[in-house]
Amino acid sequence: MSTLVFLEHHGDELLKSSLGVLSKAASLGDDVAGVVIGLNVRGLADEAGKYGAAKVYVADDAQLEAPLPQPRVDVLAQLVRDQSIPTVLFANSVLSADVAAGLAARLDAGLNWDLVDIVQEDGKLVGKRPALQDTVYVDVGWTSEPRLALFRSGSFDPSETGGSAEVEDLQVSLEAFSTGARMVDQAHEESSGPSIEDAEVIVAGGRGLGGPENFTLVEELAKALGGAVGATRAVVDAGWYPYSTQVGQTGKTVAPKLYIACGISGAIQHKVGMQSSGVIVAINKDPNAPIFEFADLGVVGDVHNVVPKLTELVKARKS
Amino acid sequence: MKPADYAPPFDARDYVAAPTDPDDERIEVGVLIVGAGPAGLACAIRLGQLLEAAPEVRERLGEVPVAVLEKGKQPGSHLLSGAVVNPRALRRLFKGRKRIDEMPFHGPVEHESVYYLTPRRALRIPTPPTMKNDGNYVASLSQLARWLAEQAEAGGAMILPETSAVKLLAADGRVRGVRTGDKGRGREAEPLGNFEPGADLVARVTVLAEGTQGHLTGVALNRFGLAGENPQVWALGVKEVWKVARPLDRVIHTMGWPLRGASKYREFGGSFIYPMGEDMVTLGMVVGLDYRDVELSVHDLLQELKTHPLVRKLLDGGERVAWGAKTIPEGGFLSLPKQLHAPGLLICGDGAGLVNVPALKGIHYAIESGSLAAEAAFGALQRGQTPSTPGTLAVYDEALRQSFVWKDLQEVRNMRQAFGRGFWLGGALAGAMTATKGHFPPGSTRTERDSEQELIRTDRAQSYPAADGKLTFDKLSSVFAAGNKTRDDQPNHIVIRRDVPPELARMWERMCPAQVYEATGNGVDITPSNCVQCGAITAKGGRLTPPEGGSGPEYTVT
Amino acid sequence: MKIAVCVKQVPEGSRRIDPETKRLDRSGEGTLNPFDANAVEEALRLKDAGGEGEVVLVSMGPPKAQDALRKALAMGADRAVLVSDDGAAGADLVATSSALAKALEREGADLILFGQQANDSDGAVLWAAVADRLRLPVVSQAAEVTHADGKLTVKRQTEFGYDVIEAPTPAVIAVSDAINEPRYPSLKGIMGAKSKPQETVSLADLGADGLESRTEIYALNDPPARGDSMKVEDDGNAAQAVVDFLAEKRLV
Questions:
Q1: Which domains are present in chain A?
Q2: A181 and C224 in contact by Cβ < 8 A?
Q3: What is the pTM of this model?
Q4: C127-177 pLDDT, tens per residue?
Q5: I need a surface site. Which of A286, B370, B481, C235 has the fewest CB within 10 A?
Q6: ipTM over 0.90 threshold
């Protein structure tokens, strides 16, 4: 096997971002294996086969039940050493980042992180890493094997190949210090909507809404799209919406698949916080608003007319 | 209608107080300097030199003989100037210690040109004698101050950055020190979880070296009745630093376009374009704040200037790397305070108004006045005098009057006021003044406050170029380039009337290079966190007070 | 409790990448990584809650990084150790974690704290590598930390909610920026910081010479251009146009 993908799961599902990395690895034409680590996770191996894994290693053990990084480092280190795996890929998450970095230290292996793509160039693997608020793309590489890479969440879409994977069980043997940290409680409430950092869709409102009461337009569209609500500094400053939703230089930096800007002019401070979004739609009545310069679709129109109609159409489509 | 009709709800007396912290909680230093600019740092360096040679005096000043307060993130964070520096005062300050070639200059001025611009052409005119720069050096004032701060610290001064001085501590008719600003207050001034109250900082001598529009300097002039006969007037300078493809081989000044010459507009100013080594150029636009047109925006005039063939050519293939704005006191000799000391207090540098407008220089006066303030304070302490006894520090005023600073300023005393009469007449008068060393025209020319000018409105905004993000920029991109990190949710630090007529709201909106003001139709809205503390609002009908220490721009190469 | 806080100096103001070295230009002025202030704050609170102990800053960077450390000393940390060595310039995760681990071994702290990320590289991984080298338990994204009877209780925030994790000391914890509001240094704190011990050590001092990075930088490129942008005027049907556009992009 030339490439191993760490497949993270939550509940009884593999994370989409992990499957995306798996699909990407398969598209590079290598033999790709996945690894699933947890308790009662063997069933997930089949799922991985559908997304391009020729083989899935399974470490199934009660000591691996809690989503903690260090036991996973132990399992991976042994696997990578035993199988002389040259490349290990991860999709970023709180857990995966800790696993990747721990593994890098354990194996003295190079880790490139925050990558958005990986390509073969002249027989070399080259990672693509955006830097300085995504104004520069840096080509990065590795000087030795194994090579570890951690991708931004959502960098790749999973694509089903319909294949099936050979499953191999792993023996689990853990370091003493790896079991020092113990999970004593997990409170995983299902919140009413995704938080702004995790949301795949963000609908954001700016001063063009005219007043705090009009944020309901934004909220309803966000709800219809299953997304979160964002706000500009101007409206947060004006007290229309809470700071926790502020997108921009002094707020959160977000990169959802879809960003809908309602009544936002697109000041540079706002732009730096959302310019990595996949698709940007802007609705603003000022045809000269700077946001139209970097929106994929710009609507010159009144948010008070366009947004409610849009919400209705989205709802109609979903039902 | 004039801005002065809508005076801000500001009373200088609110910013003078007796020390309130209990004796054992007060922080005591020997000499307290407010402001880590060229004046304050020169004062600290000179004191270090004098105290080094007089350990017994140093001993008497306690654990911290010299402290320098700085409201910016670090020394230089809030400094911006052209700058072509006359090295005279630095030579004296560092005599036998440092050579000019050890200072962070971008080289001596080798060639210089002055142009009169029309919209399409640049007419080379002879360099006016006051503007000759032989023997002077190009510098970034922000860089120079960081170097001076290192020298001051090496000489034993303690520099305290991110600390604003908000109140003058005075009791029994003498200055005792300053109270530093609170940190961690919310929008309504409510203490937040990490609230850290300011402290009483008391000293034997307090030196105000706050620079242009000094907050406590204004308070002190009022408290001790030090203001001169003529009010101070200011200009607003907006500048950019560019990385360029080809080196610039000379210092350039321009007059004329995009400013209008007719006297009714009162548009006095010009531009500067200086080389900073092989690969950088700094350029700026300076306009007197006695202008009248509500549509005038120095930020946009600078953008317009860059579209002139002369300037566009220099910047072609380059990239803007920094931006900033600052006011300059322009009243000159006639607007100086009548006295620059009070019991326990000395005032120096731009805060005192020590700027030579026709020569476009003030940094060497700041350094010289800071050095003289140090010598005055040290002299009193060495003689065992109490600096807070009235008259003890008068030696500072005497020394300043004996110095080249005074002589220079006297010779050009009427120059700025003359330009209120329009570009050509002003120019002719200025020439005559130079030739007669200030004796012509006879008598003082009265000055009106910048806020006393009646507002007019013209279509001048029509020619401002649209921002293209390469050569020309909008104000918000500029604020971003200033590295401004003012916390969004701190109390508003800009004192203005909000219920002003549309013309005044519009004037502030255009005037402010950092897009702090927005005319709303029935008044003005403000975004204080955009503020780069240039001070223009204080000249034009409002009052800037210091925000939380550490706020504002983070200039590094301006 | 003795607490070590790993902090970093980051460049101040607008940042650029040096086209020669292809690394972040660190020649300008530096400042304390703002995320590290949360870690320093948490260390000070834990020390106060425990009634005694020491807070030591451990950093790696150019010699002038001591200036940035002074800000953390002004907040109340007791002393600082800076690993500064030409051989450490441009070190990657593997090399940096190795040198830091050596410096931390020397300190033998009960708790090692990190901030959640460095604002100059967006990286959020160093602590796990350091913990592995020190063979200590690690917990990241801590939104709450308490210490009692030699045991740490950490509330961790993940994509899915909150976990409560216990770990024995010594341990490595990376705190999130939601954990606290860092204090402002008091004026007395700023003045006192100037006389606190600030040590600079070389890699040889730590027995960590010959650091080797395992990653490299090939080239700097412009970001990929976004597709052409479209603009429509609302004639009453713009909402439909948006939905069609989103459907085409498979976003609804």
A1: 3-179 (3.40.50.620), 201-318 (3.40.50.1220)
A2: no
A3: 0.84
A4: 999 999 999 999 998 989 999 988 999 999 887 778 999 999 999 999 988
A5: C235
A6: no
